[in-house]
Design brief:
The chain has 17 helices and 13 strands. It is an alpha/beta fold. It folds into two domains: 202 residues, 3-Layer(aba) Sandwich (Rossmann fold); 162 residues, 3-Layer(aba) Sandwich (Rossmann fold). The strands form two sheets. A seven-stranded parallel sheet has the order 3-2-1-4-5-6-7, sandwiched between helices. Strand 2, helix 2 and strand 3 form a beta-alpha-beta unit. Helix 1 crosses helix 17 and helix 4 crosses helix 5.
Length: 394
């Protein structure tokens, strides 16, 4: 019997990167047919799926003529006929297991309802189960009210850290939860010559380089917190050169903020991050929320120190002395000052080796396929009857 992956997000994000790695690991490990239903307007996802399909003939791709919106949970109530349409499509494919690729619980939630209606087992791959309110989304509390019941629909969950598993339970999930850590290319991300890397990137060779890598968006990534922390402490301001790599809606604001505080800093466009990790003394992750950040794993695999907000995947992996109170610039400044005055110690060999051994792409692929195989074998032993939703118009 076939497996079916479903992703109706119109945007290609970090969870799609890992989901595609998991998909390809599954394709390498089984000859059963696999169908992938993807949003018609997610061109990057469809392009990457086509590349994978060229390597694996048993993958079939189908573009669906709709995509998730920011108010997806409310749309289910306003347009319930969409559920029947997708349920009919699922019945045509008759998969043994459906895997919903969910960046958060609203993304791809249409298939959770449709699978219940059609009587198919569905597992949610959900790296970020935070509330909309926690993520600072517009009308977040209102949207969360309509999202609450979605956590009761999957027959199993796959998430990326123990903290995320706890969060799922707090949000009402009662189905089994499998933890599959993200994976990174440990051949690419490794220790190197710091001075050579700095010269390559035109960065100062003497200062303490603190970096933030990722989309420049203050609402989630909070790059401004690092600037405020360093600006608040004359010692840090005298010691540090800040490095920001990426692009996003707040890139110009970031440059203005650096200038207004008269701090030394560089704002780099997207670049090869492997030498950048080697150049940095430390990566800082001041985010409002994360899953298990790939940048954290890549930096640690490179032997670079990482400091992160005391939440989510950072809380799972980083020792207490490398975490700071979320949204607290004084806590961040104090943590960095203590580390610099202690001689900028590198991460422990144990932590670096743990990342390289258990969070490589190979380890991720093996764990992801094992979870999918286990779920498709076990839950298929208990056939389902179609279950109507609460939406009378279906």
């Amino acid at each position: 019997m076939s497996l079916l992956f479903y992703d109706d997000s119109p945007v290609f994000g970090g969870h799609e990167v890992m989901a595609l790695a998991g998909l390809e690991a599954t394709l390498r490990s089984t000859t059963r047919p696999i169908i992938f239903l993807a949003a018609h307007n997610n061109e990057k996802l469809l392009t990457k799926l086509a590349e994978i399909s060229a390597r694996h003939a048993h993958l079939t791709i189908s573009a669906i003529p709709w995509s998730s919106s920011r108010f997806e949970a409310i749309r289910h109530r306003l347009k319930p006929a969409r559920i029947r349409t997708l349920a009919d499509m699922l019945t045509h494919h008759a998969p043994q297991l459906i895997v919903a690729i969910q960046g958060n619980i609203e993304h791809s939630s249409l298939v959770l309802h449709a699978a219940r209606l059609a009587g198919f087992r569905c597992a949610s791959y959900i790296p970020v189960p935070h509330t909309n309110e926690q993520m600072g989304a517009k009308l977040g509390k209102f949207r969360d009210f309509f999202c609450h019941n979605l956590f009761s629909l999957p027959h199993a969950f796959i998430t990326i850290t123990d903290e995320m598993a706890k969060m799922l339970q707090l949000r009402g999930a009662t189905s089994p939860i499998h933890v599959v850590y993200n994976g990174i290319d440990t051949q690419r991300f490794t220790k190197g010559d710091s001075t050579a890397a700095r010269l390559q990137l035109s960065l100062p060779t003497e200062a303490c380089l603190l970096g933030v890598i990722g989309r420049i968006e203050f609402r989630q990534k909070q790059q401004h917190r690092l600037i405020e922390a360093v600006a608040s402490d004359p010692f840090l301001a005298s010691q540090c050169h800040l490095v920001f790599a990426g692009d996003g809606p707040d890139a110009d604001s970031l440059k203005r903020l650096l200038s207004s505080h008269s701090l030394r800093g560089s704002v780099l466009a997207w670049c090869d991050t492997a030498p950048l990790y080697q150049a940095l003394d430390a990566l800082v992750i001041p985010s409002r929320y994360e899953g298990l950040p790939l940048v954290m794993l890549e930096a640690l695999a490179s032997g670079t120190s990482v400091f992160g907000s005391d939440r989510d995947g950072m809380k799972d992996l980083l020792p207490a002395e490398r975490r700071f109170h979320p949204d607290d610039t004084a806590s961040l400044a104090s943590t960095l000052t203590t580390w610099i005055k202690a001689g900028r110690p590198a991460p422990t060999t144990t932590l670096v080796q743990r990342v390289r051994d258990t969070m490589s792409l190979e380890a991720f692929g093996n764990s992801f396929y094992h979870a999918i195989d286990q779920l498709s074998s076990s839950i298929s032993c208990f056939p389902l009857e179609p279950q109507p939703t609460n939406f009378s118009e279906v």
